[in-house]
Amino acid sequence: MVLTACAFAGFILLGNWQLHRLDWKLRLIHDVSTRIHAPPVAAPGPAAWQRIESGHLQYLHVRLSGHFLAGKQTLVHGTSPKGYGYWVMVPFETDRGFIVLINRGYIPPGLAETPGYAKANAPDGEAVVTGLLRFTEPHGGFMRRNRPDANQWYSRDVAAISKADNLPTEQVAPYFVDADANPEGWPVGGLTKTHFRNTHLGYAVTWYLMALASLLGAGIMIRHEWRIRHPLR
């Protein structure tokens, strides 16, 4: 009975924890949806970088003014709603004095080897960029390891790309920006996926059912013991 009581309490606690996670996930989805569809705000400067490194402001819709840094374009292998290809990452020096890596969008794998690739080059002169703030993607998990020496990139690792581009690291923001869609062809922006897997309710129901099952099991055991001790005559 003690084990049954412990199991029941444990299942209830796990179910409650999943409901807490569900509430957190729903608030996250709401916050992200609000940020994505809100008018763009100024991209966070150095004063806010520590907060971003702590995990805040993901998918904030931002606006930057400045110019792209010529000759420092990096192609990162990746998948998009349009298929496998490259993300075009270009450093952008803002008129506020710091640098942000811009993911200008997707290009198909064959484009980099064709004359049409010139169309993907970042524009010269002053520019305004709007897009979604994204956290850096340091190597880890299931991503292939970046090979800067061979110019082979598989994750949008801000620090590693900045180092390979010989950028002043103290001036580079710890995030990158997924540029909004543009009507000018390659690269294709505005492809950020914001789907969040939300299975917490299902897990909560499972744990509560297991708690109920433990009670039913205990009831069956008690009934069995009672019948043994009080046989019918």
Would you give an account of this structure?
The chain is α+β, with helices and mostly antiparallel strands and 233 residues long. It folds into two domains: 2-23 and 198-229; 60-179, no CATH class. It is 35% helix and 24% strand. It is built from four helices and seven strands. Strands 2-4-5-7-6 form a five-stranded mixed beta barrel. The longest helix has 36 residues, at 2-37. The model has no long low-confidence stretch (mean pLDDT 83).
Give the SSE layout.
Layout: H1 2-37, E1 41-42, H2 46-53, E2 61-68, E3 74-80, E4 83-94, E5 99-107, E6 126-135, H3 158-164, E7 172-179, H4 200-229
Parallel strand pairs: 1-2, 5-7
Antiparallel strand pairs: 2-4, 2-6, 3-4, 4-5, 6-7
**How big is the Rg?**
26 Å
Number of strands: 7
Order of helices and strands: HEHEEEEEHEH
What is the share of helical residues? 25-40%
- Beta-strand residue percentage: 15-25%
Unreliable spans are none
Secondary structure class reads alpha+beta
Number of helices in the DSSP assignment:
4
User: How many structural domains?
Assistant: 2
Sheet with the most strands? 5 strands, mixed, barrel
The oligomeric state is: single chain
Distance between the termini: 28 Å
Mean pLDDT, all residues: 83
Overall morphology: elongated
Strand order of the largest sheet: 2-4-5-7-6
